[in-house]
């Protein structure tokens, strides 16, 4: 599987965010420790702070996701990776650098379209709808207020899918989960 | 007449349930800002995937499965959503 160690993935994520214009310089040691201590979660996402552009670049907000409601995967890592590539035509690099945000037909992915709304979604939001539909930012939080006004959603994966530059240091972690989900979907014919 | 009243009462119940689901799924809209005439896609700034989730939760709650063409056939109001539910419940 074309994956990087966690510390490397964090550095890649931060570099990608900065390359895309988010001036974000979190404490990587602390971030690494937070991710490492999240083994009980199925995914962790670090959000750049809202006021990163104003000089508060050291901090970050973490959202931990509880385990999705799927059985344990009885498959090898390489099976999972092959599945992901065949099923969605992804590469690890592509997933990290934004293929997750490419528009894809909702109908093709099995989602219904509300009248008068867009027929397209993206892979990140799709996985979120499928496995973490009610994973939202804390009600009343500053992040939730900003997300609501900016993106029209407080769903974590809705935000990630719409605004990769805004968030997504933890995308490498999420990527491993999403590929696992892909394998589960393929095996179960979904 | 009694039958008509019963149908209207059922329709009102379904509309209330649909509004409850909408408010719960979207998570940042107050219930008092939603009525049977609300069109979520037009009246609020909502990510369209959240509206897909809204459809999924409505179908799950009422144990129905409407086709995409049925969803496209309504006017997009809460009352329109309720009409699809009622149509399927009457089958």
Descriptive report:
The complex is a heterodimer of chains A (190) and B (91). With 190 residues, chain A is mainly alpha-helical. Chain A has one domain (6-187). Chain A is built from 8 helices and 4 strands. Chain A has a two-stranded antiparallel sheet. A two-stranded antiparallel sheet of chain A has the order 3-4. In chain A, helix 1 (6-19) crosses helix 2 (28-36) and helix 5 (123-131) runs antiparallel to helix 7. The two termini of chain A are 23 Å apart. Chain B is 68% helix and 0% strand. Chain B contains 5 helices and no strands. The longest helix of chain B is centred in the first third of the chain and has 25 residues, at 2-26. The radius of gyration of chain B is 13 Å and the shape is globular. The two termini of chain B are 22 Å apart. The mean pLDDT of chain B is 93. Chains A and B meet through helix 5, helix 6 and helix 7 of A and helix 2, helix 3 and helix 4 of B.
Radius of gyration of chain B: 13 Å
Total helical elements of chain B: 5
Helix content of chain B: 55-70%
Ends apart, CA distance between termini of chain A: 23 Å
How many domains of chain B? The number is 1
State the total count of DSSP E strands of chain A.
4
Separate helix tally of chain A: 8
What is the string of SSEs of chain B from the N terminus onward? Answer: HHHHH
SSE inventory with pairings:
The complex is a heterodimer of chains A (190) and B (91).
Chain A lengths: L5 H14 L8 H9 L6 E5 L13 E5 L11 H12 L3 H6 L6 E2 L14 E2 L1 H9 L10 H10 L4 H7 L8 H17 L3
Antiparallel strand pairs in A: 1-2, 3-4
Chain B lengths: L1 H25 L13 H4 L4 H15 L5 H6 L4 H12 L2
